[in-house]
Amino acid sequence: MNTKKLFLQNIYTKLFILIVFMVVAFFFAMCVGRYDITPLDVVEIISANFKNALENLDKIRVNVVMQVRLPRIMLSMIIGAGLACSGASYQCLFGNPLVSPDILGVSAGAGFGASLGILLSASSAVVQIQALFFGLLAVAIVLFISKVQKKTELYMLVLSGVIVGALFEALVSLIKYVADPQDKLPAITVWLMGSLASASYQKVIIAVVTIVPCMIILFVLRWKMNLLSLSEEEAKSLGIRVDQLRLVIIIVSTLMTAVSVSLCGIIGWIGLVIPHIGRFFIGNDHRGLIPACMILGATYLLLIDTVARTLTAAELPLSILTAIIGAPFFAIILRRTMGGKG
């Protein structure tokens, strides 16, 4: 009992440290930009907003904090947390540390839906809806293909995901080939590389309504995820319905990834790298790993987006930065942890 208490206390302490770091990153992102704002100004403006006393403050600073940076920061934190949580869940489900949230073709499907919408000059709302629809459709096709004799094996899911992902990536390439190189092609290319430049409170609400409940579901199921490392017979003997648990994880993780892609484009590496960083700090126990991934994912994408909007005059696509920063860091983590075996 004492050992269990010490174990949980150690996890809670580490999670608290990560939360403190996330709060510091939040204020750093709020203050940094082309228009510098002090942390005290940020606190004053946010507190005045709750008191409906913004008319007494500088309008430019209020607009920068409340209308430009706050919705973007909130959206980046929710999406980062969702992608990291989705990645950790998929890696647990497949028992493979190299699995990412797009393993079942959701990102490729969403990318095709958005590219098709841009090609047809659809509104931004229609582009988001199409991205979400085709992302979910891609995974539905994967589940249909992988079901053999009323049962779905993990290796069939992976193979079906590769097939469907390749198909939708080919369709994206076809759309880029026929798109107007002066107008539509640049828009498609930029969208596929991911950006939070169009963040708004409307998108924040969509993310809160869809991604946050999914994270709560995975948070509730986090202790059951530990049992997926056992054989199917052992898990069933402990009262776990393995097939149902796998399906719930797939549906919830897919929805989070599809919504994220529909809101800000494809952002790679977060769902792959962050779970490894979480294991480095917390360990393999999903009771602590899932909340750690949420916090780390939110902090990571927040900092990446801050760099993207402040490093150069022209905003950098997020996927470029996540790959440049994530790939070397991932290599270091792999070397230190021996791929999760040491």
Main attributes of the structure:
342 residues, two-stranded antiparallel sheet, 76% helix
Question: Secondary-structure blueprint of this entry?
Answer:
Layout: H1 2-31, H2 39-50, H3 59-94, H4 106-119, H5 124-146, E1 147-148, E2 151-152, H6 154-178, H7 184-193, H8 201-220, H9 222-225, H10 232-237, H11 242-264, H12 270-281, H13 286-310, H14 318-337
Antiparallel strand pairs: 1-2
Helix pairs in contact: 1-13, 2-3, 3-8, 3-11, 3-12, 3-13, 4-5, 4-6, 4-7, 4-11, 5-6, 5-11, 8-11, 12-13, 12-14
> How can the largest sheet be summarized?
2 strands, antiparallel
Structural class comes to mainly alpha
Give the averaged pLDDT, no decimals. Answer: 89
How are the strands of the largest sheet arranged?
1-2
Q: What share of residues is helical?
A: over 70%
Order of helix and strand elements from N to C terminus: HHHHHEEHHHHHHHHH
**Beta-strand residue fraction:** under 5%
Which regions have little confidence, pLDDT < 50, spanning 5+ residues? Answer: none
The total of beta strands comes to 2
Alpha-carbon distance between the termini?
27 Å
